[in-house]
Amino acid sequence: MNIQNLISTKKSSHKYTFLSLFLLVILLVNINDVLPTYQQPIGEIISIDEAGVPDTELSPFLDYKQILTLKLINEELSTQPIKLENEFSYSQAFSNRYEVGQLLILRKTTVGTKNEYDIVSLKRDTYMVSLLIIFAFLAVLIGGKQGAKSLVSVLLNFAIVFVIMYLYRNNVSIYLLAPIAVIIFIFTSMTLVTGFNKKTLAASLGTALGLLFAITIAYVTFKLTGSRGVNYQEMDITISSPVELFYFQLVIGTLGAIMDIAVSIASSIEEILKTSTVVTRKMLISSGRKIGNDIMGTMTNTLILAYLSGSIPVILLMMKSGISLGYMMNISLSLELLRGVIGSIGIVLSIPITLLISIVLLDKVPHSEVK
Amino acid sequence: MNTSLIVLTGILFILMATIGGARGVRSFFSMLYTVTIFIVLLIFISMGFNPLKTTLIASLLISVILLFNINGINKMTIISSISVLIAIILTLLISLPFVKEARIQGFSFEQVEQLSAMSAYVNIDLSEIVFIEILIGLLGAVIDVAISITSAMNELYVIDSSLKFEQLFKSGMKIGRDILGTMTHTLLFAFLGGFFSILIWFSTLNYTFVNTINSKLFASEVFHIICGGIGILLIIPIATALMAATLTKEK
């Protein structure tokens, strides 16, 4: 019994697996050479002087200095290595402790005849690309066709976000962008995952309606409470119209969760209708409800955990600063919790909505109510 | 008092009870348990306990409570809990070198103003905390996939108990693949919202494309999403194999 045979569907594909694994390793090792180089100067750390840093435990309350010797790797003239200073603290909350071999993106300012350099940031793209390649490999290995489709969908959705961002920055109204964005997101993701058919239509409509209801409930609630509790200033970026951004984030986040449930319900209803010839409307509804209830719990928790994870560093810092739990829950975590709750409302609402739409769209033969 | 949150949570409870019945009510409370365990976990970490070990314990606790509460204690929930633990450890190991090198811990200097009320000089090494963030972020999705697979496999076996390991495994993998698409989207879109905000903000700061994609915040979101995807992928064969083995062993 060969494990490879279990995972892949073609008989000879364990040869392909090993070949691709080999190529993968070669690609990852040479990743720096494969990526395009930038216009901005890049320095490679060839040595670090940490004279002032103790070998033993670092104090959390001090700043430590690294003197980095960098070799400029994409300047036209061969230049001498440069020395730059880097400060870091034990927590590395706002700083980094660099290692030899890492690449830094620099900014060059020419003062007279001398070039001066500052550190802009660590060159992180190689790490992201490497992990992305590993993800792609696993997606195809474990996920097969669906894995590849998921990968394409992730990249596509990323691209769509970039486009929306660009349009928004060019003053296209968010009230126009949001519905269009939602439609495009639903269309792209759904057709990739479930194909271009009635099931997808049912799931899409269920998603759209569930989303609409959830956002409406949120909006009405905020209006009635005077937005008390929605602390826009806690958004960890500064932007001129936080309210718009909050709603848009809310819409996108809720969308993903609702799509999942909608697809599950629509698929199940289609499956039941395909395999059974004696199913009644009543049975369909009860099966659909059961399926929805099965997923409800884990889906809402998935959403909550995904949102809460982002606030972990802030919460830890707050705990260390002696800020009370009550304050944290009411003020700092308010946005995350609100997103989670509203998303969950959307999830729960979309169960009956998608169920009804699926039955109406997919059930073509009229059934008698009692069998 | 966070009025909006209380009102909306109340609405959620009513909806879950109405639409979900008893199951819905239990699901609602499991959400509360999850948030509680989450806060307790962070309290422990801030008190100095090893972040990674405490998070693994907390993850197991969350899986167990979530699954046992909603689905009961049975082979499916037990196997799911074990598979989840294995999957998140593996995800951690795979992503460790890249995430560590990429230095995405803490906050970026763009956020200094917002956080000026707090001191960054604390005795927590935020580079360890990054992994906690990633694990917690994908935990829910991984639990979801695990229980979906094990439940479905159990149904199959109940219908036809003559199925052998290979057949069960193949079916489990197929089930996992079917869910893969939508689950990835759930996580993707949950993080995509934040991602969008970051892009907007950076563009107001006039960051170049290069600066944007190499920035700590951007990289952080990207890693969250990719690691989430890896976690969801890994749980599929793990849960399938363990469940198939458990089911066939009962002969």
UniProtKB/TrEMBL annotation, chain A:
<keyword id="KW-0472">Membrane</keyword>
<feature type="transmembrane region" description="Helical">
    <location>
        <begin position="151"/>
        <end position="168"/>
    </location>
</feature>
<keyword id="KW-0812">Transmembrane</keyword>
<feature type="transmembrane region" description="Helical">
    <location>
        <begin position="127"/>
        <end position="144"/>
    </location>
</feature>
<feature type="transmembrane region" description="Helical">
    <location>
        <begin position="341"/>
        <end position="362"/>
    </location>
</feature>
<feature type="transmembrane region" description="Helical">
    <location>
        <begin position="245"/>
        <end position="266"/>
    </location>
</feature>
<feature type="transmembrane region" description="Helical">
    <location>
        <begin position="304"/>
        <end position="329"/>
    </location>
</feature>
<protein>
    <submittedName>
        <fullName>YibE/F family protein</fullName>
    </submittedName>
</protein>
<dbReference type="Pfam" id="PF07907">
    <property type="entry name" value="YibE_F"/>
</dbReference>
<keyword id="KW-1133">Transmembrane helix</keyword>
<feature type="transmembrane region" description="Helical">
    <location>
        <begin position="174"/>
        <end position="194"/>
    </location>
</feature>
<feature type="transmembrane region" description="Helical">
    <location>
        <begin position="201"/>
        <end position="222"/>
    </location>
</feature>
<feature type="transmembrane region" description="Helical">
    <location>
        <begin position="12"/>
        <end position="31"/>
    </location>
</feature>
<dbReference type="InterPro" id="IPR012507">
    <property type="entry name" value="YibE_F"/>
</dbReference>
From TrEMBL, chain B:
<feature type="transmembrane region" description="Helical">
    <location>
        <begin position="55"/>
        <end position="71"/>
    </location>
</feature>
<feature type="transmembrane region" description="Helical">
    <location>
        <begin position="6"/>
        <end position="25"/>
    </location>
</feature>
<feature type="transmembrane region" description="Helical">
    <location>
        <begin position="129"/>
        <end position="158"/>
    </location>
</feature>
<dbReference type="InterPro" id="IPR012507">
    <property type="entry name" value="YibE_F"/>
</dbReference>
<dbReference type="Pfam" id="PF07907">
    <property type="entry name" value="YibE_F"/>
</dbReference>
<dbReference type="InterPro" id="IPR014564">
    <property type="entry name" value="UCP031503_TM"/>
</dbReference>
<protein>
    <submittedName>
        <fullName>YibE/F family protein</fullName>
    </submittedName>
</protein>
<feature type="transmembrane region" description="Helical">
    <location>
        <begin position="32"/>
        <end position="49"/>
    </location>
</feature>
<keyword id="KW-0472">Membrane</keyword>
<feature type="transmembrane region" description="Helical">
    <location>
        <begin position="179"/>
        <end position="202"/>
    </location>
</feature>
<feature type="transmembrane region" description="Helical">
    <location>
        <begin position="78"/>
        <end position="99"/>
    </location>
</feature>
<keyword id="KW-0812">Transmembrane</keyword>
<keyword id="KW-1133">Transmembrane helix</keyword>
<feature type="transmembrane region" description="Helical">
    <location>
        <begin position="222"/>
        <end position="247"/>
    </location>
</feature>
